[in-house]
Amino acid sequence: MNLPDHSTLNRFRNWLIKEGLADELYQQINQQLAHNQLKVEKAQTAIVDATIIQTAGGKLKKSIEINENEEVIQTPASKDKDARWTIKSKHWYLGYKLHARTDEEGFIEQIHVTPANASDVNNLETVLDKVEQGVKVYADKGYDSQSNREFLEKNQLVDGIMRKAHRKKPLMREDIERNKELAKIRYRVEQSFAILHRIFRCKRASYFGLEKVKGQMGLKVICLNLLKAANKLRLVAPIAA
């Protein structure tokens, strides 16, 4: 059997990214998985989270500059002009942020890629595109805002966003217990991110530029979902006598 060589695969991958087809491709594959009963076709659960993808460039210190309006802005000290800095757990990262929505089994159904400094709370609506009414939306405290709760109510989606404490306004006991219950479901998206990072090497981008990184993430999502489907087939495969 003749298999395509590395250069052929590379050209095909670049063509998908250039034409913006990687997103459509993983959506088509998800439909095929659902048709073959390897994933839920109409999920009743939507789990939302985001993970950092470091730039393909080197680890350089962030730079600060003043723009023409005398505003202080961040710029990457890197060849990757679309990458931005963010801080997490007291560590600085230069790169992008992958926002994703999974179903209750951890299959990724929607992604959105932004520079790393984009706030989670402002990107909930994007990953909930085309989610049907009645679906329960799970998300961590980073998505807790009045506007997001109003969005869920307006679109008749069930609020599963964890509550966060505010200055001089600690969480009530019922909110703490509610957060614990929501965390039992929400961990699925974190498992999917862990697989992307560990098996498919998504901790660092392979390209410079937002559009290319978005295309790369679309292809990685295909790999993740196919792996989950393959694992499901192994679980239901008959045992040889």
Automatic annotation (TrEMBL):
Residues 44-226 form the Transposase IS4-like domain. The keyword Transferase does not apply. One of its GO terms (biological process) is DNA transposition. Keywords: DNA recombination, DNA-binding, Transposition. InterPro entries: Transpos_IS5 (IPR047959), Transposase_11 (IPR002559). One of its GO terms (molecular function) is transposase activity. Belongs to the transposase 11 family. NCBIfam families: transpos_IS5_4. PANTHER family: TRANSPOSASE INSH FOR INSERTION SEQUENCE ELEMENT IS5A-RELATED (PTHR35604). This is Transposase IS4-like domain-containing protein. It comes from Simonsiella muelleri ATCC 29453.
